[in-house]
Amino acid sequence: MESECSYKKKSNDDKSYFRSYSDIGIHEEMIGDRVRTSTYRLAILKNYDHIRGKVVLDVGAGTEQAKLVCKENGVSDRIMVITGKVEGGLMLPGSASLFMAPITDCDVLERLLFWDDMTEVYDVSMSCIKAYASRCISSHVSVQQVEPQSIMAHAAEVCTFDLQKMSRKLENVKGSFCFDCFGDVEIHGFATWFEVKFNHEIILSTSPYKLPTHWLQCVLYTEKAHNVKQGTLITGCLQLNPSSHYHRFLDIALQYTIDEAKYLQKYTMDDFI
Ligand SMILES: C[S@@+](CC[C@H](N)C(=O)[O-])C[C@H]1O[C@@H](n2cnc3c(N)ncnc32)[C@H](O)[C@@H]1O
Prior knowledge:
alpha+beta, Hnrnp arginine n-methyltransferase1, 7 helices, binds S-adenosylmethionine, S-adenosyl-L-methionine, histone methyltransferase activity, PRMT_dom, Protein arginine N-methyltransferase 6, SAM-dependent_MTases_sf
């Protein structure tokens, strides 16, 4: 049974999650993301046969402004806005997949070279900080747009979830990968992104090869840069767990092997991404 303490923690966590949607900024970002919003729209339109004339429940319509939007569009007689928390129900989209690929990244190199530059700027040598900087950069998930040309091997589909069959808690998600590198380059980390599938072949993808969305991509920088050649294999496993601090965040463990050397990196995700 859930203890009173963990129940209180969860309810506080839920409050901060719902608060994160109370400002207009996140709604500008989501609704302004045309790839996302148009894909949802298309999924609804293509499911016309199942939806037309039925009672439809849209869970998580957003802010309490939904009533005003209904009024402004003259649909208040057809749409009832219920303010409250919902649990359970049918899940759309039907499946979700996580992808991953190794990347080269000049920006992270520049961030590290910054410390070398201090000799010239202030006549104080600070290169010794580079190792610490590298550890900091490689301990958090970095949300950013990844340029397709920085991807250095074909992406691997690390795991897929059938969202209709999911149990409540997503724990200890594991997936493996094997990358065959395109050519001579320095690898600085791995990009990850997701794809969700609706029926009628509708796909919402956050791939760096597709139109950008507000989700961008996530980069897991490695503490060490790795020189690879064409055909170098990078194998390993990615493991995701809900953070012990906050169940909506993730703790990530990345194990990988390059040229028979094994590495383990741990990352925390400490912001809504
Ligand atoms: C990702 S936003 C989507 C907002 C809007 N539907 C859109 O697509 O632009 C998710 C919304 O669902 C709400 N939400 C999440 N879980 C909920 C629950 N269990 N019951 C009611 N609302 C929920 C959040 O507060 C947030 O406003």
